[in-house]
Amino acid sequence: MIHDESVKIQEVVHALEEGFLKKAILIAVLLAAVAGLASLYLFFNFRGLDSETAMDQAQLGRQIAAGAGYSTLYIRPLAMWQFLNHEESLPSGPFPDIYNFPLNPLLNAAILRPVKRWWPMQPTDLVYVGDRVIAAAGIVLFLASLFVLFFLVRSLFDAKLAWLAVGLALICDMLWRFSVSGLPQMLMLFLFTVALLLLHAALLDREAGRTGRMLLLLAGISLLLGLMTLAQPMAAWIFLGFLSFVFAWFKPRAISGLLVFFLYLGVVTPWLVRNYLVCGNPLGLGIFAILDGAGASELGFMSTLEPDLTAFGAVRAKLRSGLTSQFENLFGYFGYSIPAAAFFFSLLHVFKRRETNMMRWAIVLMWSFAAFGMAFFIPRGAVSANQLHMLFLPLFAAYGMAFLLVLWNRIDLRLPAARPVFIAVVFAVTGLPMAIQLLTAPPQRVNWPPYVPTFINSVSNWIEPDEVLCSDMPWATAWYGGRVSLLLPATVKQFITIHDYKYLGGPVNGLYLTPVSGDRPWISGIAKGDYREWATFIMRTADLSRFPLQFFTPLPIDNECVFYSNRDRWTPSE
Predict the structure, then answer these.
(1) Are residues 194 and 320 both part of a single domain?
(2) How many CB atoms lie within 10 A of CB 514?
(3) What range defines the domain where residue 194 resides?
(4) What is the total count of domains within the chain?
(5) Is the pLDDT of residue 98 over 60?
(6) Which residues contact 146 (CB under 8 A, 6 or more apart)?
(7) Domain annotation covers residue 331
(8) Are residues 252 and 389 in the same domain?
(9) pLDDT confidence of residue 14
(10) pTM for the full predicted model
């Protein structure tokens, strides 16, 4: 009896050390860590969406979910100019969106529809339920991407490195910040990781001479990259890198390259045709984002009814500064990840597997094209709608970690604990930005300035549902307020033109100015910047006798907001 119990104990110990129980415990610990991090970023560290693009695509998704079609509440004066030049009239009914590409808004529509009953904001909602749902979906896509990443890295290297790669991605603060940002990057990351998994399989088939299966996999990759482009049009640069690699490496070259090219076109062309039919430009309004930083900001160009198209001549000069800016901030764009940075040094090492080496050059080519494209659409910070470096970060970190372990093995330290300590140090340094972010997060529960969702909702409700509100942050009033929201025009004269001629079906009934325009340096940001025409309105010294909105009230949040209207809408009626 005692002997039998001893045998059972030994079996349990063996299972803990080498068998199923060890794997089960490790997986349980990993799942607990994932759940803890997800809770921290979604509930304790999340203060709502804080990106213009995320709010714009969120309100667009809600419009789709409400049955209003692909229409927007966020109206840019430049969109009005584009419609007037195309059809000499503005659309009647819901205003079509011609700025965003459709995949992320469609995803938002799918996840917002089940919570339709909670769309109206409550005065006690510090974080809007729509923000929370969109952020939760981003986390799910992030974790799904890591699930695919595990199998990709395991096929490139081995299971141990795959676990390390997943761990490095999990402790990358920037990836978590993207996951709750509402931007399309997490959807793109999932599609891109699946595409890379297929690419590795295609490389194996190429080496084995299985041409038919190889072409089928290349076709799947082109479809996935097409979907990525429908989520963020800058993914077209990644496709160009992939297409170059296909022509250079896969045989027969003509068949492989043309198959990939035409299938990709088959995915993106219907949307380009839609844009052309709606506004006369297949790329819609988004092409003008290239002018951001070419003499003015993107919002500066979007706010005018009379665009200066000679600004396109400054794009060439912008290219140089865009490339310089990217490489100056490259470490930050890669989340300050030491293994991701080590990827570039891994290019000097030859790994054992031929397909692993070739995969590395494929992603280098795609990343190089993406970096070139981003020079035209400079990211505004590390977490930005135009930031594509993060798509490459998880696989870069896997290659970089493999290279660091190769270097460590060459040191040949004969201490059993040395290698685990080295890996722990790499993880500690890589996770330092996350620790700093979580430990030093501000206590406030909203993204002020300039966003306080409940206050934006309350102010927007001063405007009736069939009226028009103008603001310097119309993406926020459209999302949190649910009102037709006009971007503050470049000049007072253009505002009066839109108001008097009722371009949006009626007059403009309110003007809501916030820290977006007011929290700037007086000379460079207001008096001589994009808001110079509105300086007296921002400072509340304007002569309103000839202005359509002759009533105004300062708003209580730090006295940094002001609301102008055609009548007193804020004094409670008796």
Answers:
(1) yes
(2) 26
(3) 133-439
(4) 3
(5) yes
(6) 166, 169, 170, 394
(7) yes
(8) yes
(9) 53
(10) 0.94
Q: DSSP of 332-397, one letter per residue? A: HHTTT-HHHHHHHHHTTS--S-HHHHHHHHHHHHHHHHHHHHHTTS--SSSS-TT--HHHHHHHHH
Q: Are residues 187 and 299 in the same domain?
A: yes
Amino acid at 562: V
Distance CA 36, CA 32 (A): 6
Least confident of 75-84, 420-429, 438-447, 538-547: 438-447
Query: Could you read off the pLDDT of 394-432 as tens digits, one per residue?
Result: 999 999 999 999 999 888 777 878 889 999 999 999 999
| d(C-alpha 404, C-alpha 426), whole Å | 9
* Between 418 and 106, residue with greater pLDDT: 106
SS3 readout for 99-156: CCCCHHHHHHHHHHHHHHHHCCCCCCCCCCHHHHHHHHHHHHHHHHHHHHHHHHHHHH
Is position 246 within any domain? yes
Residues with Cβ within 8 Å of 263's Cβ and at least 6 positions away in sequence, in order, are 219, 222, 223, 226
Residues 316, 278 share a domain: yes
Same domain, 466 and 547: yes
The answer to the question of residue 199 being in a domain is: yes
> CA–CA separation, 403 vs 393, rounded Å?
15
Is 346 within a domain?
yes
565/512 Cα distance (integer angstroms): 9
- pLDDT of 10 reads 57
Percent of residues, the chain, with pLDDT higher than 70: 95
- Going by pLDDT thresholds of 50, 70 and 90, the confidence category of residue 171 is very high
pLDDT at residue 440 in the model: 86
Spatial separation of the C-alpha atoms in residues 537 and 535, rounded to whole Å? 5
